């Protein structure tokens, strides 16, 4: 019996993604086979496909062929020997980095996330990466508190919209940078919009918050945005970067700015966030925070923004949409029965 996956056949544009057949096999020891219900389409998928991924938990120098897909939700279809964590039929999630654009996934049984059956898989899959990043930069990196002011750079994306919803729950006063046509979604979430094309966000913040903001969440990891972000912080404010620099040279400059801010400046602190601790075995904070997020989703306190839902095997179209810059929120891939 065969199943299909979407494979990066060579590095490049979405056209390099091809649908290929694989042989379905039984899981190995301590492994499960998951029938995928939903897969996220995320920025790290794009950088991996283009051969630009080197930071924030993405694969270093990943060579084709490989199956992209950073996060999935699915149903345990079969289990191997010595699997004790789950049973056949359980709803699970996985932070995979690779492998999500597929009808089936083979995955380690000790790296599964328990997912309530009551939630929509399309919404649930956004929690596995985008919402966990947003929650952890808010509550573990910046340690925000009610009444704090915050600036979100890249507010209309998958992580940005998660930051807005979670920041509203945390009682933050928020400003967000996005193109003008996406300002409505910012206002709907209680965020003061700033148009990056026609407004200098440093001037807007200095006018509205003369003492600076308590936190800046920066998903646009360019040197210019980082330098200007530091300039609008309160003396004890916190800048958290969670995006991907464009290359190694820029990454080294960012590290230099981080050292200067943290050691030589009185303009707050600068931290970089990545999911790599999860893969290095530091999983408890992630499990705790996913539990909180799934509860918030069940209770209707968060509502992921999904621009488009595609069939899993239409990943090339989904990637093209994500890269065009017109997406507000998330793009997800779904198994046929969910469309």
Word description of this protein:
- By secondary structure, the chain is an alpha/beta fold.
- The protein folds into 2 domains: 2-115 and 305-338, Quinone Oxidoreductase, Chain A, domain 1; 129-275, Rossmann fold.
- Helices cover 32% and strands 27% of the residues.
- Strands 3, 4, 5, 6, 7, 14 and 15 form a 7-stranded mixed beta sheet that branches.
- Strand 8, helix 3 (158-169) and strand 9 (173-178) form a beta-alpha-beta unit.
Give keywords.
339 residues, alpha/beta, Quinone Oxidoreductase, Chain A, domain 1, Rossmann fold, 2 domains, seven-stranded mixed beta sheet, 10 helices
Task: Detail the topology: elements first, then pairings.
Blueprint: E1 2-8, E2 17-23, E3 31-41, H1 43-50, E4 71-79, E5 91-95, E6 104-108, E7 113-114, H2 121-141, E8 149-153, H3 158-169, E9 173-178, H4 183-188, E10 191-195, H5 201-208, E11 213-218, H6 223-231, E12 233-241, H7 248-264, E13 269-272, H8 276-279, H9 284-298, E14 306-311, H10 315-323, E15 330-334
Parallel strand pairs: 8-9, 8-11, 9-10, 11-12, 12-13, 14-15
Antiparallel strand pairs: 1-2, 3-4, 3-6, 3-15, 4-5, 5-7
Helix pairs in contact: 2-3, 2-9, 6-7
Give the class-level CATH name of the largest domain. Alpha Beta
- Give the rounded overall mean pLDDT: 94
**What composes the largest sheet?**
7 strands, mixed
How many distinct helices? 10
CATH fold-level label of the largest domain: Quinone Oxidoreductase, Chain A, domain 1
Brief digest:
The chain is α/β, with parallel strands linked by helices. The chain has two domains: about 1-115 and about 305-339, Quinone Oxidoreductase, Chain A, domain 1, CATH 3.90.180.10; about 130-275, NAD(P)-binding Rossmann-like Domain (Rossmann fold, 3-Layer(aba) Sandwich), CATH 3.40.50.720.
